[in-house]
Amino acid sequence: MNTAITFAVVLVVLALLQRRFLRRGHTSVLAAESGDGTPVRLLSVSCTTGWLDWIHGELLLLPDGLLRVKQNLGRTIEKGNASLVQGQAIEFAADPVELAAARAAPRNTFVAGREVARYELRRGPMSGKLVLHMHDGTRRMLLFLVHDMDYDALEYALRGWGATRQDAAA
Question: Hey, where are the domains in the chain?
């Protein structure tokens, strides 16, 4: 089989997986079945922790911080570059037991809102970037597809926790 045909087959398979992912009505891996639980907002399903992290995760806005829940390679491929959020966060109730386990898991990233001193939020042509400058001097970076983020909800929460926006040039 030549390269062009192989490439075309791969593109068709990825497109079919994307349609299946979007058709499923995905909310979050942490959604409570009963609807009772901690109020959570799904900000992005394409969040990574850096340029070398190719596995997408969910970025969740919790009442007290941000939680990035790492997915697996299969879900990343299945989702492709599909956007679920499209500028508006998806609200749901998270199962408290699952949420506590996700916060404690070493593969996930939790950032307490009160610990963020300032932040940089940039939108590029294909990806967005959030750099969190913590009160202790450390930094955390999160990347996501530019069309897969609720920027307004994110900024509102960060300002509510007392963080100030820093221009990228500063």
Answer: 3-165
The token pair at 32 is 């409570």
User: In this model, does residue 170 exceed pLDDT 70?
Assistant: no
What are the pLDDT digits (tens) for 123-140?
989 889 999 999 999 999
Residue with tokens 């950032």: 111
Sheet strand arrangement including 164-165: 139-145, 127-134, 116-123, 164-165
Q: Which residue has the higher pLDDT, 19 or 132?
A: 132
Average of pLDDT values for 56-85? 75
- Bridge partners for 66 per DSSP: 61, 111
Distances (CA, A) of 57 to 3, 19, 50, 71, 136: 31, 19, 12, 5, 26
Residue 17 burial class via C-beta count within 10 angstroms: exposed 0-12, middle 13-18, buried 19 and up:
middle
Q: Tell me which fold the domain 3-165 belongs to.
A: PH-domain like (2.30.29)
